[in-house]
Specification:
The structure is a single chain. It contains 4 helices and 2 strands. The chain is mainly alpha-helical and 139 residues long. Helix 3 (65-88) packs across helix 4 (105-138). The two termini are 46 Å apart. The mean pLDDT is 88.
Length: 139
């Protein structure tokens, strides 16, 4: 597919999505009861954006052996960090004041794992920031 043909196809897709968005917006503001059509269109656009992003990431990953290895190492490191975060989190049930369970142990563990992952990633970002500044100071 030629470069100009690809650009024409992308422009046509863009104009179709823009036209549908305008129609959905007009329908919402003209008498949308609860915005359900707008929310559904938002889900469609979000899924489309995630799909296109994943497609380009997947295609670019296989462009060279070096980028494939780097991508696989990144995925492995992220998996290991997720496992560490999951193992650090507790799996206690969460109760409200009346003694009813509001979150099971599994939900509590995954929420805790997310918080631990946040702490680990923030720590790594802080350390890399400090390392970059120190390295730049000596160069």
């Amino acid at each position: 597919m030629g470069n100009s043909l690809a650009i024409k196809v992308i422009n046509i897709i863009f104009y179709v999505i823009a036209a549908i968005s305008i129609v959905v917006g007009v329908m919402f503001f003209a008498g949308g009861k609860d915005g359900e059509i707008l929310i559904i269109w938002m889900y469609i656009l979000t899924a489309l954006a995630i799909g296109v992003t994943m497609l380009f990431a997947f295609v670019n990953m296989f462009k060279s052996k070096k980028s494939l290895i780097a991508s696989l190492v990144t995925i492995a490191v992220f998996g290991i960090l997720t496992l560490i975060s999951y193992l650090l989190a507790s799996n206690n049930d969460i109760f409200n004041a009346a003694g009813e369970v509001i979150a099971s142990g599994t939900v509590s563990r995954w929420a805790g794992a997310g918080i631990y992952m946040l702490y680990i990633l923030l720590g790594m970002a802080f350390i890399s920031l400090i390392y970059t500044e120190i390295r730049a100071a000596f160069n």
